Amino acid sequence: MSPDLFSSSSWTERVQNWLFAGADGGGETAACIYTLIETAKLNGVNPWKYLKLVLTVIQDYNSQKLHELLPWNISKSNILT
Q1: Residue 44 Rama label (left phi>0; alpha psi -120 to 50; beta)
Q2: What is the pLDDT of residues 46-64, one digit of tens each?
Q3: pTM value?
Q4: 40 touches 46 (CB < 8 A)
Q5: Spatial separation of the C-alpha atoms in residues 9 and 58, rounded to whole Å
Q6: 60 to each of 5, 10, 57, 64, 66, how far by Cα in Å?
């Protein structure tokens, strides 16, 4: 993945491509990822850095505190746009 993946210029094209994800599960997964990306952007967080951070820590993270990893709750000191 590269940071230009998150540019809005080809958003419609990517959404149309995911309509043909091959299975409902693939489409739902894509929708979740795009939702996280757009939510990060709306909260002033760099989506690339946000996803990298979350994917790095989520494996060992307390399942009762996953809400802390949402874009509006996470420490933005190193992932601001």
Answers
A1: left
A2: 999 999 988 998 899 899 9
A3: 0.62
A4: yes
A5: 30
A6: 27, 34, 6, 12, 11
The SS3 assignment for 45 reads strand
Domain boundaries, the chain: 3-69
Instruction: Give the number of other CB atoms < 10 A from CB of residue 34.
Output: 16
Structure tokens at 40: 């990060």
Helical H segments across 1-81, by residue range: 11-18, 24-42, 47-57
Token pair listed for 16:
């149309």
Contact 18, 28 (CB under 8 A): no
Rounded Cα–Cα distance for residues 70 and 81 (Å)? 16
What is the identity of the amino acid at 19?
L
